[in-house]
Specification:
- With 347 residues, the chain is an alpha/beta fold.
- It has 2 domains: 3-61, DNA polymerase, domain 1 (Orthogonal Bundle), CATH 1.10.150; 66-332, Aldolase class I (TIM Barrel, Alpha-Beta Barrel), CATH 3.20.20.70.
- 35% of the residues lie in helices and 18% in strands.
- It has helices spanning 10-19, 24-34, 50-59, 131-149, 168-179, 199-206, 223-229, 238-252, 270-279, 305-317, 342-346, and strands at residues 3-4, 60-61, 66-72, 78-83, 89-96, 101-104, 108-109, 127-128, 155-158, 191-195, 213-217, 256-261, 285-290, 321-325.
- A 10-stranded mixed beta sheet has the order 3-4-5-6-9-10-11-12-13-14, with helices on one face. It has a two-stranded parallel sheet with strand order 1-2. A two-stranded antiparallel sheet has the order 7-8.
- The chain is elongated, with a radius of gyration of 21 Å.
- 44% of the residues are buried.
- Bound molecules: S-adenosyl-L-homocysteine (SAH).
- S-adenosyl-L-homocysteine binds at residues 117-118, 159, 163, 194-196, 217, 259, 261, 290, 292-293, 295, 336-337.
Length: 347
């Protein structure tokens, strides 16, 4: 079977050319085609001779994603159903605001975790995405941002399908590519890695000396409540999570964002607020209150606007920075937690 050339490092590609008796700069040219220029066909590599292109073609393939379907929301959000080389599908979302375009990208096909409020958790985890598959989602959304909004992509959030820290090595490789001058050259500071909270992996990420931001899907600072809505957290108690967050802050000096869906009658009482306030004392942090987006089965309901406002006020009283995540793309099931290949699975 031919090797996917994008699974090789630049040095490995250079080595290939040297082995075949060519100059090393040929390897650099090819590397530029497959990453910076996102070329998906050897035929398009116009600064290589026909023979060289043929040689590449007999040895390698260039696996790449294909946008299978685009849905546009009335609020400007664009959801892409993205087909992978082996026919699996994931979703990526472009979220425009006044002055920004954010790409929400997937890291796995399905998800192995079991957050009860998330549509992706209903899909079995089939496999991890490769670095190029994550990179291609970002390239696709950057192109869409240029096309529809006349500006480049400004931010990237790993909040699509899957748990990024359970696909750790490929996550790191994709960040390297996205941020490298030989890739897209986007600043690490514009990336948010959102995790459901895997302590060991948060520590590992802390050690990478990256400048990416960390968001933790907390959703409750009370163990029993968190265990109920995110059963897998029984293996990752809050005490361990806390310890890993302290480690993160010590290593990176960067504030952590806690994501918190305010669910009616589940995590919206006075004691829930107090527990969250206490949790926020651990390290410098901010809270992103999220409205629950329906995923159909509805054991859950979003707390009403008044409760969310109360939450906001109480946190602010304690000088905690709070933002409220406006739901985007709900009409096309592109909002947080709604990514489940719905359109595709109906076909
Ligand atoms: N596994 C990672 C990234 C994917 S989820 C994580 O858990 O952080 C991205 C964000 O969407 C998380 O904050 C998640 O809690 C939130 N989310 C999931 N389901 C949701 C829903 N039904 N409504 C609103 N937000 C949801």
């Amino acid at each position: 079977m031919k090797i996917d050339i994008r699974s090789l490092t630049e040095d490995q590609i250079i080595e290939f050319f040297i082995d075949k008796g060519f100059d090393s700069y040929r390897g650099r040219q090819v590397y530029e085609w497959i990453w910076k220029k996102s070329t998906y066909s050897f035929d398009d590599m116009t600064n290589l001779s026909k023979d060289l292109r043929l040689m590449l073609d007999t040895n390698f393939v260039i696996n790449h994603i294909e946008v299978d379907k685009i849905q546009k929301s009335s609020d400007g959000t664009i959801k892409n159903a993205v087909k992978l080389f082996d026919d699996y599908t994931v979703e990526s979302v472009l979220i425009p605001t006044e002055d920004r375009t954010t790409a929400c990208v997937s890291s796995q096909v399905g998800c192995s975790l079991d957050c009860k409020f998330c549509a992706t958790s209903k899909l079995k985890r089939m496999r991890n995405l490769n670095p190029d598959e994550i990179y291609d989602q970002v390239v696709t959304i950057n192109n869409q941002s240029l096309k529809y909004f006349n500006r480049s992509l400004s931010n990237i959030v790993f909040m699509g399908m899957g748990e990024p820290l359970m696909n750790y090595n490929n996550l790191i490789k994709s960040i390297d590519l996205i941020c490298s001058k030989k890739g897209l050259g986007i600043s690490q500071k514009r990336i948010v890695v959102s995790t459901s909270g895997i302590p060991k992996m948060i520590k590992k990420l802390s050690d990478e000396s990256l400048k990416v931001n960390l968001a933790v899907s907390l959703h409750s600072a009370i163990e029993s409540v968190r265990n109920k809505i995110m059963p897998f957290t029984k293996d990752f108690p809050l005490i361990e999570l806390k310890e890993s967050l302290i480690y993160w802050y010590k290593k990176t000096n960067r504030r952590i964002t806690y994501e918190y869906i305010v669910l009616k009658g589940i995590n919206d009482s006075r004691s829930d607020i107090n527990a969250l306030i206490d949790f926020c004392k651990i390290v410098p942090s901010k809270v992103n209150l999220i409205q629950y987006n329906s995923i159909g089965n509805d054991d859950f309901k979003t707390a009403d606007t008044k409760t969310i406002k109360l939450y906001e006020d109480e946190l602010e009283k304690k000088k905690i920075i709070v933002t409220i995540r406006r739901s985007r793309g709900q009409d096309i099931d592109a909002a947080c937690g709604q990514l489940a290949n719905k359109e595709v699975s109906l076909n």
